[in-house]
Each structure stands twice: as C-alpha cells, then as structure tokens.
Amino acid sequence: MTQTIIDKHASTPWNLPDYASARVHFDWPQARATLAGLPGGGLNIAHEAVDRHVAQGHGERVAIRWLGKSGERIDYSYARLSADIARFACVLERLGIRQGDCIAVLAGRVPALYIAALGALKAGVVFCPLFSAFGPEPIQTRLEKSGARLLVTTPQLYTRKVAALLPQLPRLEHVLTVGDDVEGTYHLEALLEQGEPDFPTAATAPDAPALLHFTSGTTGAPKGALHVHEAVVAHAYSGRAVLDLRAGDVYWCTADPGWVTGISYGLIAPLVNGVTMVVDEAEFDAARWYQILEEQRVNVWYTAPTAIRMLMKIGATAIAGRDLSALRLMASVGEPLNPEGVIWGNNTFGKPFHDTWWQTETGAIMVANYGCQPVRPGSMGCPLPGIEAAVVRRRREGGLEFLGVGEEGELALRAGWPSMFRTYLHEPERYAACFVDGWYLSGDLVSRDADGYYWFVGRSDDVIKTSGHLIGPFEVESVLMEHPAVAEAGVIGKPDPFAGETIKAFVALKPGYAGDDALRKTLIGHARLRLGPAVAPRELEFVANLPRNRSGKIMRRLLRARELGLPEGDLSTLESSDGA
C-alpha cells in the first residue's frame, strides 16, 4: 500500500478545504471574478498585484521585504511599490518604449528587478527575465531573439557580460544600470526620481503579451515562451489553492527570478494574494535560510528539491533550537521531489513538503499535492481544479490513445487554461507541434493511480529501454537516495548490444562517506534488492556534484552526453554557466 502523510498543521481550514468538491464546482470565470480588472474590461498583472491593494486601503501592508546579503533590510509597502513601478513605467514612456515592446532584466535578487518587472507590465510592455549567471553568449541569444529595446542590469554585469555585445544588438537601444553610474548607460535611480508616481496603467486586454520566458530543451536553440496578462488568473488561484496564500501572510519563494518560478510564484502570485514576500539577495546557506524562516516568521515556504537535498545532506541538527512554528505549508518545485525528501521534511519540520508540477509553458502549477489531501511521497499529486489531465500515447496513424490506471504514457493537459503559453516567439511550427487534438503534450512520462494521483516516470527523452523494460530514471534515483550515504543521484541509459541499454548511476555522497569499491557494491546491491536486477544500475560512478540547471533539475542529458562523448547541446541554463 502506498505510504501517505496527512498534514495536520493548519489551525484553520485550508483555502482549498475539499479537493473533490472543488473539482466539480470550480470554473475559470469564477476565478477571474475574484480579480478587480481594469475599467472597460481589460486586465493587467501589475494592477492586480499592486495597485488594487492600494485602492482597497491596504497600501501600508508590506509587499516586499528585501534582505541584503550584507545584512540590510528594506521594506516596500504596497503604496511605495505602486509609486515606484509607476515611475518606472513613466521612464519607459520617456525613453520611447511603447506598449507591446519588450524589455529585459539581467540582475540578481535586487529590488530594481521587481520594480522593473511590474513597471513594464503596468506600461503594457513585455517583460523578459534573464539569469544573472548567464555568460555573454546566452545573453546575446536571448536579447536578439526577444528583440528587447531596453535592458536593466547592474554595473558589474554590464561591464563583464553586456558591453562587448552591443555592436551585435542593434535593437537594444537603452541600458539602465542599478546603483553606480556607468558610461554609456542610464542611471536607473536618477531616472526614477524624475518619474511620476501616478502613471496610468495601460489598458491591456487579457490576451495582450506580458511575459517572455526562455526555456531550453534537450535539442535546439532556447525557446521563447510568450504568456499574456490573463495568466494572472491562474497565478492568483493556484497561489490560494496550492500554496494556501492569504492576505497578510509572510511568504518565501527561494527561486531565482531569472526562472519562471521566480516570476510566477516569486512575484505575481504572492502579491496578487496580498502577502508580504521575502526576497533574499544571498545564495543558499543553510544557517541563513533557517534564520530567515525563524526571524521573518515565514508562513509559506516554496523551494526546490535541490535545496531540500542540500538541507538533508547537512542534517537536522542545523534546525535544533529554531522556532519555526509559524510555518503552515512547505512546497517544492523544479523537478520531482524524491520520497525521502517528503518524509525527511515531515520528520524534521513536523509537516511534509507538498510537491508541485508545472512547466515554463504551462505558466502556473498544473498538478500538486494539496494541504487538504494526504501526501503520497514521490507523487506529483492531483490536477489543479480547472485543469483536465490525462495519460496518453501518440498513435502512429495520428491522434492520441488515452491510457488507464497504472499505464505509463505522456502527461497531456486539455488546452485553454489562462496561463498557457500562447506561442514560441518566431517559431509557430515548434509551438504547433506541442499540441494534438486540443491537448498540450508535456514531454513528461507519468502514470496515474486509482485515486487520481500522478507519478513521474521521466522525461520522454530520459526514459531508459533495457531488456524489454521501460525504466524511468527517477525511480532508480529515488531508491539510491534511500541509502544514508547518498546525497544525490543521476541515472542514464548506455547503449548495449544485447540489452538495448544498461543503466549507469552517478552518485554524490554525503559528508563522511568514502566513494570506494565497497560502497559502490553496497549501493548496487541495495538497488538490486529494491528494484530487481533488470532495473538496478550495472555501473555506478561517484562524483562530487551532479550537473544541474538554475532551476535545480539534474541535467541527465548532459551526464549522458559526457559519458558517451556526444555534443552537449545548449548549456545556457547550466548552474555553473557563468563563464566570467
């Protein structure tokens, strides 16, 4: 029987108290009606996230609590944030940036990034975030493809990564730098001082372009997934239903703002729901993270499986003596969370991590574990109310075959939810290939159990075919992680003339364990005992770290390429891709 964990922590009913009832009664027009909208029937993300709270008398509530890496703290009330984003929208107008144009931001977690994002949306300008860890080549590719007319960045990033690119970027007309003056750029703070604090919100229609997120596939150039202002309907609802966000909560999403989660759930969803969102400028540090959770009295915490595994690796002693009683819900995003992470969270914090599944293309959470439901460790959870999901297989003759309970196939979503991407920029054929018969095909292989919970098997291009078996790497990785020596594991298939493919595992160990031949044999034996000889790794290599992208996903295709001497493909989102 599948293990379940019931989160009994909530002292008041969850925002979504009954999942089955919500599935029956929910519809998107109902969710849309909870938002204010613009006069004349328009919809604008910035208005819903900030300005309407001020209009409703909540301007003094803290919207963003920024924690600097050197100990600074700055609180931005909704009223202050509203004035600042209006000033930024005014700056865009004075520089000739018009509704429908695109601007990009290349920066870490600094206040200017959030002001620029919301100010662009207020002005009806498309906002495109870029990872601050990008090297010059991926920056150039994305600026070219987006057609961005303006870039906001820091003096350091401009000097190291952008300045030399300008001759190759004729459409990039303006660069605004945060902090110090830099020759050849505008000083952002000086421009903001000249802006008007009551700039009118652009009359954007729900289907007006709003957000451009670049995502990298296994092959091909980065894709620019374009989202519209109507996406805020899904951001708002999923923030309430999945993350249980409530006005006045203190909320912390640890995602980098260069990634879609850092915008959808590190900016839009929390502000639309009236919370105080914590923004920490510093990189991961376990002691600092626990200090923030305690001192800021965080109620809802949304983080990545990579971070959870790092905390597990350090051990529970780091939490000793901390008062984390304010925590109501913990959730994870970025890649499937291994069962051990869910169980560790429950044992360490007294509540489980609620895993969530979605993609850059979906724009918002599509499948999740909810507070009102038992968590099944290792499961993606159940579809969001309003989302129709299925397990399918493409027919050779065209169309889809819909699969039943326990069968493995591709996760498909009925098209038409508010945050669904509307195109791949300049690539209509690539976009059309994502859909069959009105269903979006995610590329993720899953199964569904009898109770409607979905279980991740692997990416369609990650699945291993060995001796007639289809093996999802996640299953093997999760079993390896059950061993107390293992911090992380990545699994690939290697071509084999007899079996088709054999399984090789790459393992990073916890401190105190030596990667010797005895441990290698122990881990392979553990996997054989749990999975059987056909599924267990035949090879196991110890590594210091596994390659991950900036969202925390293990890049199995890179492990495979390096193992087999194949082209490594697009490395722009690799965690160590700074190149500076």
TrEMBL record:
> What residues does the AMP-binding enzyme C-terminal domain cover?
475-553
Q: Name one GO molecular function term.
A: acetate-CoA ligase activity
Record keywords, A-Z: Acetylation, ATP-binding, Ligase, Nucleotide-binding
What are the AMP-dependent synthetase/ligase domain coordinates in residue numbering?
53-425
Please name the GO terms of the biological process aspect recorded for this protein, alphabetically: acetyl-CoA biosynthetic process
Q: Pfam families annotated for this entry?
A: AMP-binding, AMP-binding_C
This protein's GO cellular component annotations are: cytosol
Q: Which residues form a coiled coil?
A: none
Main EC class the enzyme belongs to: ligase
Q: Which InterPro entries match?
A: AMP-bd_C, AMP-bd_C_sf, AMP-binding_CS, AMP-dep_synth/lig_dom, ANL_N_sf
Q: In the Enzyme Commission scheme, what number(s) does this protein have? A: 6.2.1.1
Instruction: Identify the NCBIfam families for this entry.
Output: PRK04319.1
Q: How is this protein named in the record?
A: acetate--CoA ligase
Output the lineage of the source organism.
Answer: Bacteria, Pseudomonadati, Pseudomonadota, Gammaproteobacteria, Candidatus Competibacteraceae
